[in-house]
Specification:
This protein is of the alpha/beta class. The protein is 40% helix and 15% strand. It has helices at residues 6-12, 38-46, 61-74, 85-94, 111-123, 136-142, 165-174, 187-190, 224-238, 244-275, 295-301, 316-326, 356-361, 378-390, and strands at residues 78-82, 102-106, 127-131, 147-153, 178-182, 200-204, 218-222, 281-285, 308-313, 331-332, 342-344, 368-372. The chain has a seven-stranded mixed sheet, with helices on both faces. It has a five-stranded mixed sheet with strand order 8-9-12-11-10. Helix 7 links the parallel strand 4 (147-153) and strand 5 (178-182). The chain is globular and about 75 Å long. Bound molecules: pyridoxal-5'-phosphate (PLP). Pyridoxal-5'-phosphate (PLP) binds next to helix 4 and helix 5.
C-alpha cells in the first residue's frame, strides 16, 4: 500500500486501542501507573520502554497518541506535548541554551515570546540579537560562531509578514545554530517547515489544533535526538507537560483540522477580495493576495495565504473600535484559529505591552484590526464585515 494521505493520518495516526477496542481514543486520566512487582518498578526506572509509563509529567498514553499524530502531520520524527504554546516556546529554547550562548531572533514576536527572548533569556546570561526577520541580510549579519539558536514566527503577528524558513535555515546552519520556528500562523496543515530546514517546530495547539476554543496546549516537534535527548528531560522535570484530558481534546481537533483550516482559508480569501480598495481602509494584509509583499514566498513556503488577515482603518483607534463594536457575527476576542471568527485590536490588547515606538516599528498601527477567520459561511462574514465598516 502507498503511504497514507494527510487526512487519513489525522483520523487514524497514532491511535492505540486498549483491551476494550474503543472507537474514539481513550482518555487515560491517570497520574501514575501500577507495577506488578517491586522489580518491575525498578526496571521501568532503569529503562522505560515503548508503551511503558511512569508518571503523567513524563508521559501518558493519551498524550503519546497526540504526539505521534502531530509528528506525522508535521513530518517530524518525534514530538513532546506541552501545557501551552508558551510552555513549548520556553521549553524549545531553554532546554538547549546555557549562559554564554547567543541567540538571534526576529523582532516581530507574540507578546509572551517577546518576554522570553527579551527578558528571561538575558537574565540567565544568554545574549539575544533582534533582527528584522523578513530581511535575510540582517540574519546573515547577526549570526556568529557562538550562535546556538535562531528563533522566529514564520508568519508574524499581527502584520502577517512571511519569514523565509529555508533562507534563514541556510544562514543558521552555516554556524551550526538550531532553527526554532513558531509556526502557529502558518498552521500545521500548510507547514513543510522541517523539510524547509527547521530543527524544532513549535505550535500553540490552543489555536488551530483545538480550533474550537476549549483547551490550552502546545507541542515541540523535531528529530528523535533533539526531542528525547534535549527537550524531554527539560520538560518532564520542569512541569510543562500536557494534561491527558487536553491531549484528548487536541486529538479530536486533529481529526478535523484539515477540513477546518481549508474552510477558514476560503473565508479569508473571500474577505480579502471583498476588502480590496475599500475606502475606509489604508491597507488590507493577506498573504494569499497578489498584492502582499511576500505573496510568492507564502505560496512557495505554504501554498496558501492562511486563515488570518489584518487591515488598517484610516481613522485610527476610534474607527477600529467603532468597527469592532458594530460586528454582529464576528466576535471580539484575542484567540485565533477558532471555528468562530474573531476580531482583535492588537495595539490595545495583545501588543499593549510593547512601547509605542516598537509598535510603530512593527507596523502595529492604532487602526489595525486582526481577523482570525472561522468556518462560518464566507458570504455571511463578508456581509458582517462590510456592514461594520459602513458603521464606522
Ligand atoms: C498563541 C501563541 C503563542 C502562545 O500560545 P499559548 O497556547 O497561548 O500559550 C505563541 N506563539 C504564537 C505565535 C501564538 O499565536
Amino acid at each position: 500500500m502507498s503511504e497514507r494521505g494527510k487526512r487519513t493520518n489525522l483520523v487514524h495516526g497514532g491511535t492505540k486501542r486498549s483491551q476494550w477496542n474503543e472507537v474514539s481514543e481513550a482518555i487515560f486520566l491517570t497520574q501514575g501507573f501500577v507495577y506488578e512487582t517491586a522489580e518491575a518498578a525498578e526496571q521501568r526506572f532503569i529503562k522505560t520502554g515503548e508503551d511503558e509509563y511512569i508518571y503523567a509529567r513524563y508521559g501518558n498514553p493519551t498524550v503519546a497518541m497526540f504526539e505521534e499524530r502531530m509528528a506525522m502531520l508535521e513530518g517530524a520524527e518525534d514530538g513532546f506535548a506541552c501545557a501551552s504554546g508558551m510552555a513549548a516556546v520556553n521549553g524549545a529554547l531553554t532546554s538547549m541554551l546555557k549562559a554564554g550562548d547567543h541567540v538571534v531572533s526576529a523582532r516581530a514576536l507574540f507578546g509572551s515570546c517577546n518576554y522570553i527572548l527579551d527578558e528571561i533569556l538575558s537574565r540567565y546570561g544568554v545574549e539575544v540579537t533582534f533582527v528584522d526577520g523578513a530581511i535575510l541580510e540582517e540574519w546573515d549579519a547577526a549570526v556568529r560562531p557562538d550562535t546556538k539558536a535562531v528563533f522566529f514566527e514564520s508568519m508574524s503577528n499581527p502584520t502577517l509578514e512571511v519569514i523565509d524558513i529555508e533562507g534563514v535555515a541556510k544562514i543558521a546552519h552555516r554556524v551550526g545554530a538550531k532553527v526554532v520556528v513558531d509556526n502557529v500562523f502558518s498552521t500545521p496543515v500548510y507547514s513543510k517547515a522541517i523539510e524547509q530546514g527547521a530543527d524544532l517546530v513549535v505550535y500553540s495547539t490552543t489555536k488551530h489544533v483545538d480550533g474550537q476554543g476549549r483547551c490550552l496546549g502546545g507541542v515541540i516537534l523535531g528529530s528523535k535526538e533533539d526531542i528525547r535527548g534535549v527537550v524531554e528531560p527539560y520538560m518532564k522535570h520542569t512541569g510543562g507537560s500536557m494534561s491527558p484530558f487536553n491531549a484528548w481534546v487536541m486529538l479530536k481537533g486533529l481529526e478535523t483540522i484539515d477540513l477546518r483550516v481549508r474552510a477558514q482559508t476560503e473565508g479569508a480569501t473571500k474577505i480579502a477580495e471583498a476588502l480590496k480598495g475599500h475606502d475606509k481602509l489604508s491597507r488590507c494584509i493577506y498573504p494569499g493576495s497578489q498584492d502582499h509583499a511576500q505573496h510568492d514566498l507564502a505560496m512557495r513556503q505554504l501554498g496558501s495565504g492562511g486563515t488570518m488577515l489584518s487591515f488598517v482603518l484610516k481613522e485610527g483607534k476610534e474607527a477600529a473600535f467603532r468597527f469592532l463594536n458594530a460586528l454582529e457575527i464576528v466576535i471580539i476576542s484575542n484567540n485565533l484559529g477558532d471555528a468562530k471568527s474573531i476580531a482583535t485590536h492588537p495595539a490595545t490588547t495583545t501588543h499593549q505591552r510593547l512601547t509605542p515606538e516598537l509598535r510603530a516599528e512593527l507596523g502595529i498601527d492604532d487602526g489595525l484590526v486582526r481577523l482570525s477567520v472561522g468556518i462560518e459561511d464566507p458570504q455571511d462574514l463578508v456581509e458582517d464585515i462590510l456592514q461594520a465598516l459602513d458603521a464606522v
